[in-house]
């Protein structure tokens, strides 16, 4: 029904069907395709691809202009692009795809919808044609509330714990945890978010959590079609995400996840989130690719430190060493990066300063010179501390006031708390 | 005998005795004292303190000039300083102190000696009056070869392992490991350095290691007098350091380590070393003080990451988060910071890139579309990959050359290594 809620929006039905078709014909980030849509609009773009026209000087010229603005100088040309798109016309059935999603309790979110995440605009020409959403279509929160937690599939128990705890604590702070629905860190992040939402029942964090307008605990951005729960081992988890949050993909139902689509999916995660945190990653890891996208979009990137002996933290340490990520050890650090609530939690850690922290050099010297058990005289203190008699007397007065020194049978000694 | 080697240097005997005396009269970083020495010279400085003069307008004026140049605008004045120094005249016996060190196989290193570490000049007026050295006096290497490994006394087994391994590997690279001789990280760093020197026997690293002119594996900079091995639990270790390296302090024999002297000692460690690495430190830790000194002296600072659950790594993560330290995970990272050998070891970690790393988007799409077991046709590939027939044929040729694709009964399939 969420699907229909959007699908039946007045005036956009044709555009929605056209965009549904275009997600089938074009791979993610097919810049020529984006240029065609920008120039002709979704419906005419589909019509043109369906036509027998081999090319169009006018279209090609305007597309070249759009592409050059977005930094793509030379491109193979419209004919070449058509040869990519047309072989897929045979499989084209956008109404069927929209119906499939509707039956699964989702729909197609398009830029023309008010709920379209404005953050995706930062991808410029690389922005998705549309988003296939399984779950409440209107549930993708604004960038400021979204935190990506990503990492290796083969996570360690350390990384798994950190991911789950950070996710849970972020949800309690009213954030939505975005990840890729994969095994390992992704799954732990989704689980932590869902469990926190279950515990808080919308009391902590955002009171509207879970409701249609509310902030969902977690989103999964997939590299393949949202009709399939992939990987199958995460089926239950992904089902739970569709109920409390949403599963999102720019590719239509029935599409297989491929290496290329995984890399493209990462740019969506980065674009949707205010902060991307790499919890665990090997020296070479897809999670670093997501971090790189976030960096390119000038979003904040965080990395979780770990043992120098753990290959699964080598990627995080690489980001820290290269200065492309900030060291984050808990949700408070992440919230601080997101410039949101809880900024000062880190400071609290400092704990109460020791009593002697505020002392000047002279008083510190004097305090060091004061014996704990026996007592001593002002003259002795003057020698041991290397201070004049006057300075010793003045200092003893200050230390006594602070409760660090005390008079004892005609001498002085340190208080045990000094 | 090393002591005499320096102690008997022609022309400096008087200055050496004077500086020995001044280390007894003045606490470390007593700027007024440093100003007096700068103005009057060591011998006249002692003579003036011994005299009955209550002050000296000329001296005080020149000292004020020196202090203001070094940023100390207002100071209590010479009379006040004299009241600090004179109470200690009673205990003054510099020849005895020099003799004590000589008997212990050491001596007093003074700025007038050719072996004086030039790096200490960066401390400006805060530079030590002299260094009491137990071990070969000429053995303090140049800054470029010195790496400080510091950290908490209550180290975890993780921190202990990292400290020992980093130290050992640094010595094998010809570096000298400098630390504070304390329990925990310090002790492990010294141990790792000594064991590496024992193993290599001067074959690896610096061939002159261990010899009088050679690079010692490790130095311990102490907060108290070098006549005592403190803490007593490290006696054997410290004895070993005096044999292969040296133990150094700016305070004379018989001086107790105090909180103030520990903080001052940290500035010496930072000043002597090209890089200061904090291996393990709590949120509040003396090791952070050493890092801060290194930062102030614009020396490189490294921090070793660890578990976010370990309180003993919180200080390191704090440094990383605040950007005042670089993330270092092994000796190669540290050597890179020291801008020395082994710079590229970190890169090697990257390992061989996957075969598909160099592929363009089209070939990547094509590779993703190729089935591993069954075979497929060019037309099918064109649909699945979303590429024109011509592009598919060209791409298949490239992939075949790379050994990623292969012809099989009138169709195409992926090679298992693809």
UniProtKB/TrEMBL annotation, chains A, B:
State the protein's name.
DNA processing protein DprA
Q: In this protein, which residues make up the domain named Smf/DprA SLOG?
A: 109-337
State the family it belongs to.
Answer: Belongs to the DprA/Smf family.
Fetch the Pfam families from UniProt.
DNA_processg_A
Top-rank lineage group of the source organism: Bacteria
Its BP terms in the Gene Ontology are:
DNA-mediated transformation
């Amino acid at each position: 029904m969420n699907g229909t809620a959007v699908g039946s929006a007045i005036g956009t039905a044709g555009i929605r069907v056209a965009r549904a078709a275009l997600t089938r014909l074009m791979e993610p980030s097919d810049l020529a395709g984006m240029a065609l849509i920008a120039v002709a609009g979704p419906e005419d773009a589909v019509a043109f691809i369906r036509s027998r026209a081999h090319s169009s000087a006018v279209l090609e010229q305007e597309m070249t202009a759009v592409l050059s603005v977005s930094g793509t100088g030379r491109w193979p040309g419209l004919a070449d692009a058509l040869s990519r798109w047309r072989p897929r016309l045979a499989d084209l059935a956008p109404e069927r795809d929209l119906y499939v999603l509707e039956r699964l309790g989702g729909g197609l979110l398009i830029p023309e919808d008010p709920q379209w995440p404005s953050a995706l605009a930062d991808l410029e020409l690389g922005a998705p044609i549309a988003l296939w959403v399984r779950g409440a279509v209107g549930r993708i929160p604004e960038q400021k509330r979204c935190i990506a937690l990503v990492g290796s599939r083969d996570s360690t128990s350390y990384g798994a714990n950190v991911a789950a705890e950070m996710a849970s604590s972020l949800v309690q702070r009213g954030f939505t945890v975005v990840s890729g629905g994969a095994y390992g860190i992704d799954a732990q992040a989704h689980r932590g978010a869902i469990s926190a939402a279950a515990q808080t029942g919308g009391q902590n964090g955002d009171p509207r959590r879970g409701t249609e307008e509310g902030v969902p605990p977690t989103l999964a951005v997939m590299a393949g079609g949202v009709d399939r729960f992939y990987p199958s081992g995460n089926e239950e988890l992904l089902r739970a995400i569709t109920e409390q949050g949403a599963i999102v993909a720019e590719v239509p139902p029935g599409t297989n996840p491929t290496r290329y689509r995984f890399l493209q999916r990462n740019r969506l995660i980065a674009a949707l989130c205010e902060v991307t945190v790499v919890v665990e990653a090997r020296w070479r890891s897809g999670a670093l690719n997501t971090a790189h996208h976030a960096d390119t979009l000038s979003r904040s990137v965080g990395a979780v430190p770990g043992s120098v002996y753990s290959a699964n933290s080598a990627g995080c340490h690489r980001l820290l060493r290269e200065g492309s990520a900030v060291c984050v050890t808990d949700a408070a650090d992440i919230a601080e990066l997101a410039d949101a609530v809880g900024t000062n939690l880190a400071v609290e850690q400092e704990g109460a300063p020791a009593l002697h922290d505020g002392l000047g050099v002279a008083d510190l010297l004097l305090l060091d010179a004061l014996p704990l058990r026996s007592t001593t005289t002002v003259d002795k203190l003057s020698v041991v501390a290397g201070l004049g008699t006057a300075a010793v007397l003045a200092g003893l007065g200050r230390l006594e006031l602070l409760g660090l020194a005390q008079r004892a049978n005609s001498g002085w000694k340190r208080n045990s708390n000094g």
